[in-house]
């Protein structure tokens, strides 16, 4: 069975390959009922100057016990530094 850290690493690799965008961080991780991992990966969608104006996105991925991508989707977009309520 795959560890949480390996699942996060594999999910980040898959998102990079699928989107061509830079990974900022892994912002969430949980095991699903099927022994898969759901991993939320934050990426830089658009770089701006200053970087506080960058557009970020969170992609929700699911990887199986072998580290293969089962599915992914963009769950939200936002400006760097903005909170949920801004």
From TrEMBL:
Among the record's GO biological process terms, what is one?
Answer: gas vesicle organization
A Pfam family the protein falls into: GvpO
Taxonomically, which superkingdom?
Bacteria
Q: What is this protein called?
A: Gas vesicle protein
The source organism is Actinomadura livida
What lineage is this protein's organism placed in? Bacteria, Bacillati, Actinomycetota, Actinomycetes, Streptosporangiales
